[in-house]
Amino acid sequence: MKLSFLAAQTPEAQRARRELERRYGAVPVEEAEVLVPLGGDGFMLETLHAHLDRKVPIYGMNLGTVGFLLNSFAIEGLEERICAAIGVDLYPLRMRARDQRGAVHESLAINEVSVFRETRQAAWLAIDIDGICRLEQLVCDGVLVATPAGSTAYNLSAHGPIIPLGADLLALTPISPFRPRRWRGALLPSRTRFTIRVLDPEKRPVSAVADFSEFRDVVRVDVWEDRAIACRLLFDPEHNLEERILKEQFIP
């Protein structure tokens, strides 16, 4: 099995990489049949973004904190674990943002696309769903669109719903909404196209963020699921991603 090991910059991850390479050998990333990132969820997201065009399976091992997108770390039996692993295909969100100067920025998000206020004043946003205005004015700190994999991350912290894998849904979740007070977001089909329009960009500037790519002073943000791209993650059967997402819904 041709493996390529990638490691976060922490001493623990670097030591693990050296030991795994001694044990199993390693090939350059371009020749790998499986990528094995070592680190936390942040490093896993970096790995996914860096290799979206390679269509190579990724079996991550957790040497960070939460490790929601990773398997537990162990030196022994790695090849056997990879062979027995369950594959999950994740489809990223594509974000296209236009700023006040007219420049257009594009980026992909595995977890979520978020729109945030930049100053002390709340953002004033309008939200269109498939070209129809569904919310004429949302006064808030921001709003986000989350994938099922990302629904347990920032979306959950913002009191958004957890989405099971395979549900073909995306979460639209407000961040600290002021008006309308009772609006708590929506679950929409994965084929939905979201448009977030900034109503007062000069006085109330807004940033758009796709995972960790940020663009400031935006006036319009379009978001949709890009089914032309798939990230294939591998998980141990007893700790597969679907089971983790299910368990998150029953944590007291």
Distance between the termini: 41 Å
Can you give the mean pLDDT? 94
- Percent of residues in beta strands? 35-45%
Q: Give the ordered list of helices and strands.
A: EHEHEHEEEEEEEHEEEEEEEH
Query: How many domain regions?
Result: 2
Total number of helices: 5
**How many runs of DSSP E, i.e. beta strands?**
17
Q: Which homologous superfamily in CATH is the superfamily of the largest domain?
A: Probable inorganic polyphosphate/atp-NAD kinase, domain 2
CATH class category label of the largest domain: Mainly Beta
CATH topology of the largest domain: Tumour Suppressor Smad4
* Main sheet record: 6 strands, antiparallel
Widest sheet: strand ordering: 6-5-16-13-8-9
User: Do you know the CATH architecture of the largest domain?
Assistant: Sandwich
CA gyration radius, whole angstroms: 19 Å
Shape: elongated
**Helicity range of the residues?**
10-25%
Q: Which structural category do the helix and sheet elements fall into? A: alpha+beta
Low-confidence stretches: none
Describe the model:
The structure is a single chain. By secondary structure, this protein is of the alpha+beta class. The chain is built from five helices and 17 strands. The protein has a six-stranded antiparallel beta sheet, with no helix packed on it. The chain has a six-stranded antiparallel beta sheet with strand order 12-11-10-7-14-15, with no helix packed on it. Strands 1-2-3 form a three-stranded parallel beta sheet, with helices on both faces. It has two domains: 3-90 and 230-248, Probable inorganic polyphosphate/atp-NAD kinase, domain 1 (Rossmann fold, 3-Layer(aba) Sandwich); 93-225, Probable inorganic polyphosphate/atp-NAD kinase, domain 2 (Tumour Suppressor Smad4, Sandwich). The longest helix is centred in the first third of the chain and has 14 residues, at 11-24. Helix content is 17%, strand content 38%. The mean pLDDT is 94.
